[in-house]
Amino acid sequence: MSVTDYKDVWVFAEQREGALHSVSFELLGAGRKLADDLGQKLVAVLLAHNGRPLADELVAYGADKVYYLDSPVFEKFQDEPYAQALGDLAEAHKPAIVLAGATSVGRSFIPRVAARLQTGMTADCTGLEIDPEQKILLGTRPAYGGNIMATIVCPDKRPQMATVRHKVMKTLERDAARKGEVIEQKIDSAKLTLRAKVLSTVKELEETCNL
């Protein structure tokens, strides 16, 4: 396939305990501009269980389409099933760009997806734009201990993938009247690779003092 056969900007919509992480809305804001610059659609990918209201919320924040994959396995984050599901979907639909938050979740499994798809990934981006002539993604990130800013491209492989730092992109205003397409798919949990099981999640409490 030619790189021109890959279309649309995808955003991995991260959810935790049934609530969307704020980085997902920031990515939709950034992705909306990229998609408009390319004249393509902005697509969100949601892995969750009983999460249809979250899919509708993604439309309200800018997505033209949402792929909502439902399985009890997706209630808690696990590398293997997340990477398998997103990788399968990307192989089937051929996105041009895939964005995810540079969170503990995104940093953990997105490189697995990039390796499976045999493409490049720019980590910890603080800036994203489309080259006006070549129509490729320009990912800007700090390098050499933050002393310089590097712009990284992936001209010959697709999808172009990037993780984006939290709280650097602008969220669009929520529009409850906005219309979009939600494609819901029930996933057979037995077909997901699951060599480990999350038994519980322990939240670390930070103690601070007022000085």
Report on this model:
It is a single chain. The chain is 26% helix and 28% strand. With 211 residues, the chain is α/β, with parallel strands linked by helices. It has a single domain, classed as Rossmann fold (3-Layer(aba) Sandwich). Helix 3 crosses helix 4. It is globular, with a radius of gyration of 17 Å. The N and C termini lie far apart (60 Å).
Shape: globular
Largest sheet: 7 strands, parallel
Order of helical and strand elements: EEEHEHEHEHEEEEEE
Q: Counting H and I runs of at least 4 residues, what is the number of helices?
A: 4
What's the CATH topology label?
Rossmann fold
Tell me the domain tally. Answer: 1
Q: Let me know the average pLDDT.
A: 93
Unreliably modeled segments: none
Strand content: 25-35%
* Gross CATH architecture: 3-Layer(aba) Sandwich
What is the helix fraction of residues, given as a range?
25-40%
Structural class: alpha/beta
Question: Over the alpha carbons, how many angstroms does the gyration radius reach?
Answer: 17 Å
- Using DSSP, what is the number of strands? 12
Largest sheet strand order: 7-11-6-1-4-5-12
The CATH class label is Alpha Beta
**End-to-end C-alpha gap:** 60 Å
What is the fourth-level CATH superfamily?
HUPs
